[in-house]
User: Fold this.
Amino acid sequence: MSYDRGKEVVDQGSSINPPLSPSRYESQKRRDWNTFCQYLRNQIPPIHISQCNSSHVLEFLGYLDQFGKTKVHLQGCVFFGQPDPPAPCSCPLRQAWGSLDALIGRLRAAYEENGGTPESNPFASSTIRLFLREVKECQAKARGIPYKKKKKSIKGSSGEDSTS
Assistant:
């Protein structure tokens, strides 16, 4: 009988304070981290996260390209440089630059949350930053979408913005 009473108290306590569900960002970050770790485990031989470097990250991003949904026209395609081509073509589908950039940001944070040091973070390497910049420029040319760097604004003494 006392067992039932104790169970009742536990059940009531859990319904009063339901566990908080993680945010969409946190859920995606955990999913991305698990996917990357699974990718490393599936390598022959398996790679431990402590042995991971930027080349493994680049291989992972290449692997993800097969699941991409963004049409990236090849240099010789008649639609190269056109944002809205009038007909279909056989150019490959790739991961969009924005998706890759967001993914790397989440994995960079997850790496450090899972015990990695900022100094050894393969997602924060200059190799990965350079790769992302190249993907951005390549996709912009192929799809005819100009990416222009925004000028930083400086607040004047009157409070109005002026560009330098």
